């Protein structure tokens, strides 16, 4: 498979000056989301920022998101790359990252230095497709949870993997220092409260997941987790590509020598994204499926 690359002259070209484009609050929200999640597809952006229009008679059109994203891309607020997928015909779907002209707006919105935003935006236009499915799954989970939290009056706090990596958390297990590197950390605040690590498991075997679990348990019991994140309770949510894989992770945790089996939950990404707050979770050591906010 051949992926088109920009010529060296195009790569050195300065970003086009915006053609008098007036950014709307929705445009700014799109730019912030793309920066926070690094890469987003059109479908993901529609779910996150355009669904409300469908409820207003005479306003919604399936062409609206396309026009908005095209205009943002033409003015270098977004960068669009065709996803290298095999399909029978038509253009491949586009994946969006932040463009250089968006940096001042995103920096202001997220209280960051413009240079920091520009550097990350440049990196995101070159992200390898090898891990795109994993990044996209994390984004799907975040979007689903953000929408569900908004609809139920909860506040969502989300720490991305990049932020967590910068914490350099680790724990000693059997004389070895093991890193604590989840895909995300989330906290939900409302009538109930919960704090969880996210582990997206699209391909790994139960044995690899058990190795991670063997680090999470002492990380919690040592008090390092509470000291760092400020919560007394902790869950590890494994999101898988299939129900079968979720059940296999549950079986592996339930049969393991871990003391805190009920800390480890698993579910398929598809079920989670459809209804995040329903009874869809396999809980280690238990038979009945549970709710995240039960």
CATH class of the largest domain: Alpha Beta
Strand line-up in the sheet with most strands = 4-7-8-9-10-11
Percent in helix: 40-55%
Structural class: alpha+beta
The succession of helices and strands, N to C, reads HHEHHEEHHHEHEEEEHHEHEHE
Number of alpha- plus pi-helical segments: 12
Task: Give the number of DSSP strands.
Answer: 11
Domain module tally: 2
Low-confidence stretches are 1-15
The N- and C-terminal alpha carbons lie at a distance of 47 Å
How does the overall form come out from the CA principal axes?
Answer: globular
- What summary fits the major beta sheet? 6 strands, mixed
CATH topology of the largest domain: the name is Trna Endonuclease, Chain: A, domain 1
Strand content: 15-25%
CATH architecture level-2 label of the largest domain: 3-Layer(aba) Sandwich
Rounded to an integer in angstroms, the radius of gyration calculated over CA atoms is 21 Å
Mean pLDDT: 89
Summarize the topology.
Layout: H1 8-12, H2 25-37, E1 40-41, H3 42-49, H4 63-74, E2 78-82, E3 94-98, H5 103-110, H6 114-124, H7 132-152, E4 155-160, H8 161-165, E5 170-173, E6 176-179, E7 184-189, E8 193-201, H9 206-221, H10 224-229, E9 235-240, H11 243-254, E10 264-268, H12 269-274, E11 282-283
Kindly describe this structure.
The protein has 294 residues and is an alpha+beta fold. The protein has two domains: 23-127, Arc Repressor Mutant, subunit A, CATH 1.10.10.10; 132-283, Trna Endonuclease, Chain: A, domain 1. It has helices at residues 8-12, 25-37, 42-49, 63-74, 103-110, 114-124, 132-152, 161-165, 206-221, 224-229, 243-254, 269-274; strands spanning 40-41, 78-82, 94-98, 155-160, 170-173, 176-179, 184-189, 193-201, 235-240, 264-268, 282-283. The strands form three sheets. It has a six-stranded mixed β-sheet with strand order 4-7-8-9-10-11, sandwiched between helices. Helix 2 (25-37) packs across helix 5 (103-110), helix 5 crosses helix 6 (114-124) and helix 9 (206-221) packs across helix 11. It is globular.
